[in-house]
Amino acid sequence: MSHFLRSTLFLTLFMGVGVDAMAFDVYLTRHFEKQSHSQDPALAAKGLRRAKQLVNLLENADIKKIYSTQYRRTQQSVAPLSQQLKIEVEIYPANELDALAKRIKAEKVNVLVVGHSNTIPPLRALLGGKAKEMSEEEFGELFKLKIVDEQVTMSSQQVGVNE
Questions:
Q1: Are strands 151-158 and 65-68 parallel, antiparallel or unpaired?
Q2: CATH code of 89's domain
Q3: Quick one: residue 65, left, alpha or beta (phi over 0 = left, psi -120 to 50 = alpha)?
Q4: The pTM is what?
Q5: 20 to 30 Å CA-CA from 9: which of 23, 72, 117, 122?
Q6: 31-51, pLDDT tens digit by residue?
Q7: Residues 85, 86, 90, CA angle at the centre, nearest 5°?
Q8: For strand 151-158 and strand 141-148, is the pairing parallel, antiparallel, or unpaired?
Q9: Residue 158, SS3 per DSSP
Q10: Which InterPro entries match (predicted)?
Q11: Which domain holds residue 108?
């Protein structure tokens, strides 16, 4: 066996080098402040400001995919980033979080998912993070799940400033 082949085999077996050793980041946030409690409201002025501030936080995060539910408030929350990065927003059904989590884990690329107070906590748990409840009044928290070989570390930060 050649020296090159032995070295490659050693690295693969003992160092864990391989395609499954990829690290990727999943960013999760609830839609930003909405105008009303109607069925499909648009974002309020404060929510639109947060959407623009999200660009500053994630424009250099190497986001490859952006996922949103079909609602206006979620799509408006990611529209500025989508336009900046020239990435089309992919719509996911809010009641199919298992399928979305499996897809994200299989793709192994940096993604942003925007959802709702009742979808982001269970999605976080499905991806290996902590499922902390969210209230109807919480807006602007951006969660980052760093996934390396199925090991998940989670952090969060605020998008913009609470007024």
A1: unpaired
A2: 3.40.50.1240
A3: beta
A4: 0.85
A5: 23
A6: 999 998 888 999 999 999 999
A7: 100
A8: antiparallel
A9: strand
A10: His_Pase_superF_clade-1 (IPR013078), His_PPase_superfam (IPR029033)
A11: 33-118
